[in-house]
Design brief:
With 197 residues, the protein is α/β, with parallel strands linked by helices. The protein folds into 2 domains: 1-27 and 105-197, P-loop containing nucleotide triphosphate hydrolases (Rossmann fold), CATH 3.40.50.300; 31-99, P-loop containing nucleotide triphosphate hydrolases (Rossmann fold), CATH 3.40.50. It contains 9 helices and 7 strands; from the N terminus they run βαβααββααββαααβα. The strands form 2 sheets. Strands 2-5-1-6-7 form a 5-stranded parallel sheet, sandwiched between helices. It has a two-stranded antiparallel ribbon with strand order 3-4. It is globular and about 50 Å long. The two termini are 19 Å apart.
């Protein structure tokens, strides 16, 4: 089984690319979606987060804006949150690997792959990229996004050029979806992964 990591800075089109791999029959583990489930209604991290960060949950789920405000500008608080979240995500990831033990490859969608030095654990790293102007346009179009919030997020991420330099494969998402899908198919062919698409 090949282990593939998919990463890229905010607004680069990573979710779109991950969906294309899933459409091609490659099981995808989405770290962000896992976190959302763990922190969503009935999620098992909700009581732990409320205990450590009082007032950051409501109606049985984490209030993401309140939690963000509590940790955004305090490295110690962010580290405390990560100490709650990361082990739970690791547990879910292990369960995903066991469930898909017969797959020819697994794709792990990990936004902060290089930043957490996680790239060494994978056979191949795929970076999703787009020109900075397009990235900015996409990010600022998101609900609730501000210039300041975007700049803070980008400050925690390795620059796109550095990610591309460290990638085994780069997918450019600046063109039409068909062009992006063709790049995904080329990678699958290069890795000799037979797919249904």
């Amino acid at each position: 089984m090949k282990s593939l990591a998919l990463t890229g800075s905010i607004g680069m089109g990573k979710s779109t690319v991950a969906a294309m791999f899933a459409d091609a029959g490659i099981p995808v583990f989405d770290a962000d979606a896992t976190v959302r489930a763990l922190q969503g209604p009935g999620g098992r991290l909700v009581p732990l987060i409320e205990a450590r960060f009082p007032g950051t949950t409501k109606q049985g789920a984490v209030d993401r804006d309140a939690l963000s405000a509590a940790v955004l500008h305090d490295p110690d608080e962010l580290a405390a949150l990560e100490a709650i979240v990361h082990p739970a995500v690791h547990h879910e990831r292990t369960r995903f690997i066991v469930e898909h033990g017969n797959a020819p490859a697994l794709l792990f969608d990990i936004p902060l792959l290089f930043e957490t030095r996680g790239d060494a654990a994978f056979d191949h790293v795929i970076v999703v990229s787009a020109p900075a102007a397009l990235q900015r346009e996409r990010v600022l179009a998101r609900p609730g996004m501000t210039q300041a919030k975007m700049e803070h997020i980008l400050s925690r991420q390795l620059p796109d050029a550095d990610k591309r330099a460290r990638a085994d494969f780069v997918i450019d998402t600046s063109g039409p979806l068909e062009a992006t899908r063709a790049q995904v198919q080329r990678i699958l062919a290069c890795l000799d992964l037979k797919t249904g698409v």
